[in-house]
Amino acid sequence: MRKIMIFVLFSALLAVAVTACSNGKQENKPSGNSSLSGSGTVSPNANDTAAELTVRFGDGGDSFTLYLEDNDTAAAIARHVGSADWRLPIYHYDDYDGWEVMQYYDIPSRYEIPSNAETVVSEQAGQVYYSEPNRIVLFYQDADIAGEYTLVGHFDATVEFVAAVEENPVLEGWGNKIVNISA
User: Fold this and answer.
1) Which domains does the chain have, with CATH numbers?
2) What is the pTM of this model?
3) How far is CA 153 from each of CA 17, 25, 59, rounded to the nearest angstrom?
């Protein structure tokens, strides 16, 4: 009798779980936010992607706004950052021609980010690109360096911005600098 009761109870729980899973579809509905005009930035849409992200160079650094482009790559990055802030180590192309004008941040491989790379030969200070596989490249000085990139967005390349990038301290115990990206 006890085995029959356990079997009936288990069957009932299994039926409830299957029913809950099959009815658990979620719809993406527009958030009702208005879109931004001009400047090629992402408009909030049915996926609730951000039009801009907040970036700090170092754990205690000032915040700067990254204005996102209107493309699938920027939307995917905004969506991922919107679900969990990113704290990424910063790398430099120390042995690469022009290393003093850029730095890059490797995004964990668990994040899928689409790319529509094009050959870029001239970058302006403040431009941010995506480069496969899962890498963000920031140019904080003007540069003439060829690469296969997808434009993600830009910063206002003020004196304060460039100083924050260049003066970002190395994190003790890591040997790297840190960038914090949040929605």
Assistant:
1) 52-182 (2.40.100.20)
2) 0.70
3) 43, 33, 22
Do the Cβ atoms of 71 and 116 come closer than 8 Å? yes
Rounded to an integer, the average pLDDT of 46-66 is 84
Cα within 13 Å of Cα(119), Cβ side: 2
- The answer to whether 164 touches 177, Cβ cutoff 8 Å, is no
Which uninterrupted H or E stretch holds 68? strand 63-68
Q: Report the C-alpha gap between 133 and 115 in whole angstroms.
A: 9
ω into 133 cis (within 30 of 0): yes
Instruction: Please give the single-letter amino acid code of residue 155.
Output: F
* Pair 142, 104: CB distance under 8 Å: no
Over the Cα atoms of the chain, what is R_g? 22
pLDDT at residue 171, as a whole number? 87
